[in-house]
Design a protein that fits this description.
The protein has two helices and nine strands; from the N terminus they run βββββββββαα. It is α+β, with helices and mostly antiparallel strands and about 150 residues long. Strands 1, 2, 3, 4, 5, 6, 7, 8 and 9 form a nine-stranded mixed beta sheet that branches.
Length: about 150
C-alpha cells in the first residue's frame, strides 16, 4: 500500500516540550497521547481539546512518514485550530530510556504495593509502577517496529 502524502490530507502543527527542552516541533498527520481518561488520537481539524496527560507514550506520524514514539510522565495536551501543544513533566526519546532502571523501578513499586499498608506510600508506588510500565511499553513498541521493518 502506498503512503499518503501531505498533498492529499491536511496536517497538524505539533510542538512538544518538557521542563528542560523542546522535544519535537513540526508537521504531523496524527498524534496519539495518554489523556486523563484514556488514549486519544488527534487528527487535523480536531475539535479544541485540553487534557491532563497520564504516564504513557506519545506516538506521532510525521509528514516525512516517520513514526516517532516518546515516553511522557505526565503533563498537559492542548489542541486548537490543528495546532497541538504538549507540555510534559518529563519526556524521553526511546534511546534515553534505561531498560534496567525501568525494570528495577517496576519491581520496587510492585514490592511496595505488596507490603505497605500506608495509602500515601501505595499511591506513590502506583504512579511509579505506571511510569515504569510506560517506559517498558515504549521500548517494546520500538523493538516491534524494528522487527517489522526488517520483514519488509
Amino acid at each position: 500500500m502506498q503512503g499518503i502524502n501531505s498533498d492529499t490530507r491536511s496536517t497538524l502543527q505539533v510542538e512538544i516540550a518538557d521542563v528542560g527542552q523542546q522535544i519535537f516541533m513540526g508537521s504531523c498527520f496524527s498524534l496519539v497521547a495518554p489523556a486523563a481518561f484514556g488514549e486519544v488520537c488527534i487528527l487535523p481539524r480536531h475539535a479544541p481539546f485540553l487534557s491532563k496527560l497520564q504516564p504513557g507514550e506519545i506516538r506521532l506520524e510525521t509528514v516525512q512518514n516517520e513514526r516517532l514514539i516518546y515516553y511522557v510522565s505526565g503533563g498537559y495536551l492542548e489542541v486548537k485550530n490543528s495546532n497541538v501543544t504538549v507540555l510534559a513533566d518529563q519526556m524521553l526519546r526511546s534511546n534515553e530510556i534505561d531498560r534496567e532502571s525501568a525494570v528495577d523501578a517496576k519491581a520496587n513499586a510492585e514490592q511496595v504495593l505488596k507490603t505497605s499498608a500506608i495509602d500515601s506510600v501505595r499511591d506513590v508506588a502506583k504512579l511509579e509502577l505506571l511510569k515504569a510500565l510506560a517506559q517498558l511499553r515504549v521500548l517494546e513498541h520500538i523493538e516491534m517496529a524494528k522487527l517489522n521493518g526488517k520483514r519488509k
